[in-house]
Amino acid sequence: MLSTRHGVRPLAAADLDAFLALTARDPVVNVFADYRARTTNLEPRWLGGEMWGRFDGGELVAACHVGANLVPVGATADDARAFAERALTRGRTVSTIVGPHDAVEALWNGVAASWGRPREARWQQPHLEIAGPPAVEPDPRVRRTTRQDMAELYPACVAMYTEEVGVSPEHGGGAELYRARVTQLMNRGWSFATFDGDRLVFKAEVACASAHAAQIQGVWVAPDRRGEGLAERGMAAVVEMVRAEVAPVVSLYVNEWNEPARRAYARVGFQETARFSTVMF
């Protein structure tokens, strides 16, 4: 049922075409939402939550993914405030708010008084894209991971997550679920790594993909091997493989303060196209 003030309601399978038309307005920035919609058909049981839509004159003008993450899609600040008002009716069930900066800022301002102080807020995260060949020589050792790599891969994934997020993915009994996610990406052919002998020294994964773009996550270099160019050449190889076999544009977003990573991505040929923000609880 529509909110009489703001025209917000949960979307369903019948709204899929309209939703995909919305994500297509900025298909690289919206790759997560596009991927979630196509793989779940907007069915709540597969989403593990809901996808809200905001309507104007019967037309879908903005949306918001509501699962483990709260992700605004094509939302203006006014749309985000409407989603925030709806979010307040159910309390906080999400672990992060993430997406384009202006919409995340408006969403957060709308719920902050009720949802309490976040664990961390990262307000200016460059969103980067590359749509052509990498500008540096790819590392020929980069390959897709297999189940035989799990003894090296899983600890590297845990180390990356803990370093990036500040909390281990195994905290609170999450090890089984996180291992399943690592395995899922591996089985899809979305997990890439460089090995020096038997030791994993670089890794990255495709988090989500559509016909338009693939978003990279989990870029990590073994701490004692940083500064050797492993990230640059490793990412160059990942870009080549992903563009050839998954999607024509490769994207990611990075913390503003992570200067070494930003320099590495710039050398590979990534260019900033937007700013993201992440509020973590």
Q: Give average pLDDT, whole number.
A: 96
Low-confidence stretches: none
What is the global morphology?
A: globular
- Please outline the major beta sheet: 12 strands, mixed
Helix content: 25-40%
Number of helices: 9
Distance between the termini: 30 Å
The structure class reads alpha+beta
Strand order of the main beta sheet, please?
Answer: 1-2-3-4-5-12-6-11-10-9-8-7
β content, as a range?
25-35%
Q: What are the secondary-structure elements, in order, as H or E?
A: EHHHEEEHEHEEHHEEEHEHE
Reading off the top of the CATH hierarchy, the class of the largest domain is best stated as: Alpha Beta
In the CATH hierarchy, the third-tier topology of the largest domain is known as: Aminopeptidase
Explain this structure.
Residues 140-281 form the N-acetyltransferase domain. The chain folds into 2 domains: 8-116, Aminopeptidase; 130-275, Aminopeptidase (3-Layer(aba) Sandwich), CATH 3.40.630.30. The protein has a 12-stranded mixed β-sheet with strand order 1-2-3-4-5-12-6-11-10-9-8-7, with helices on both faces. Helix content is 37%, strand content 29%. It is of the alpha+beta class. The protein has helices at residues 16-23, 31-40, 44-47, 77-88, 101-115, 150-165, 175-187, 230-245, 259-268, and strands spanning 8-10, 50-56, 59-66, 69-73, 96-100, 120-130, 143-144, 191-196, 199-209, 213-221, 249-253, 271-280.
